Amino acid sequence: TISIFCTILISQNTWDLKKSSDNIFVYTRKYENLNICEFKASSIVNTSVLDVFAIIADVANYPSWVDQISFSKQVSKTNTNFIVYYQIALPVGIKNRDIVLENNIVAYSADKVKIELKSKPTLYPEQKGFVRIEEASGYWLLTAKNNKCEVTYQFYSDPKGIFPA
Hints:
By secondary structure, this protein is mainly beta. 15% of the residues lie in helices and 51% in strands. The protein has helices at residues 2-12, 49-57, 62-65; strands at 16-21, 24-30, 37-45, 69-77, 81-88, 97-108, 112-119, 131-133, 135-145, 148-158. Strands 1, 2, 3, 4, 5, 6, 7, 8, 9 and 10 form a 10-stranded mixed β-sheet that branches. The longest helix is centred in the N-terminal third of the chain and has 11 residues, at 2-12. Mean pLDDT is 89; it is low at 1-11.
């Protein structure tokens, strides 16, 4: 019985490769006991850890490089934390979403940056016409590898409401 239970636990945490293209690998797995998947994407890019961090910290430019983000705004910032409000444009027939994410910088050096992400839905006023995503978490992990940067982004969110799988 114990070995069956351990096998179930291990298989529930296994990442499945869903897409691989241009040295970008995207994995998914079921999130806890919910019918929602979290994803993890990873790649190695030909730049430094701090250059990638600068792009992530440039909140105003998210709509130019993050799919479906139509608006982004930095709500607050300290040396180790920044709060970001995003609006997410979805296909016709699905109500647009918005989210407030706390970005906590838990490691910062030329060789490694880790930013933990956590939804903080009450830190920015709800906006008309958007469904607020209240539950979300993840991280950015940037690691130096042979004068390049390994980028890992893992994220889970409950989009709420009617949303196709």
